[in-house]
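Long-time lurker, first post.

We've been arguing in lab meeting about whether flavin-adenine dinucleotide would sit comfortably in this protein at all. Half the group thinks yes, half thinks no, and nobody has a model to point at. So I'm putting the question to the forum: if I give you the sequence and the SMILES, can you give me back a predicted structure of the complex? Inputs are below. Any interpretation is welcome too.
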Amino acid sequence: MLEKLRVIVWTSAMVTDATAESVTVRKGGKIEKILTRTILWAAGVLASPLGRLLSDQANAPMDRAGRVIVEPDLTIPGHPEIFVIGDLANYSHQTGKPLPGIAQAAIQQGAYVAKAIVQRLRGRAIKPFRYFDKGNLAVIGRGKAVADLNRLRISGFPAWLIWIFVHLLYIVEFQNRLLVFIQWGWFYFTYDRSARLITGKNPLPLDL
Ligand SMILES: Cc1cc2nc3c(=O)[nH]c(=O)nc-3n(C[C@H](O)[C@H](O)[C@H](O)COP(=O)(O)OP(=O)(O)OC[C@H]3O[C@@H](n4cnc5c(N)ncnc54)[C@H](O)[C@@H]3O)c2cc1C
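Top reply:
Settle the argument with this. Predicted structure of the protein with flavin-adenine dinucleotide, as tokens:
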């Protein structure tokens, strides 16, 4: 799909350097320097510094990305009163690997913890957290998306329609859904930009 959009995809390639005018990539034994002033980094983010604080003050174990390694009930070892969820949590009890840092994991963990607290107050035992993977959706261009619905993989315009439907479904209240739907329709047909970037200063040289 990305290649159809004329994107050149490199796998097994490691960025070794990035400057204001270039990015250097190592692929196999070869080093390549790509001259560019625009570099978008999407290879992951570090967890909040709160993880380090929990590690220092409550001995919470951490992984390399700064996430807190949590117990099956999303608490930290020796501290049943502290829950860690979402991007800050490394929960590996289901598949052996940490859950992806995406909204559906954070939302499900939030709901679990709310129920767990109520159960505790009622003096009942808490079952371990279980993640339900609803699949993944991503928009990759105008009218183009990819949908990985576990057993079903769709791409292109149908996946884009599914993306719109699912996201509208998650917006609270009918009025808001209608408003967002009209706005998206407007942006689509007028080519208006739905995201505005606010930067402190003009990042481009004035002579451009
Ligand atoms: C650019 C980008 C695009 C993304 N796109 C998608 C997507 O399309 N689909 C998807 O599923 N996921 C996406 N994600 C991931 C998704 O946003 C996160 O997985 C999700 O928001 C995690 O929720 P969270 O509650 O753990 O953390 P957050 O949503 O980051 O919330 C943490 C909150 O804690 C606050 N906070 C931090 N430190 C402190 C402190 N010391 N005291 C008080 N408050 C504090 C922060 O200000 C923030 O409001 C995207 C992430 C990024 C960065």
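For your lab meeting: The two ends are 32 Å apart (CA to CA). Strands lie at 13-18, 22-27, 30-35, 68-69, 75-76, 79-83, 89-90, 136-141, 144-149, 152-156. Whichever side wins, do check it experimentally.
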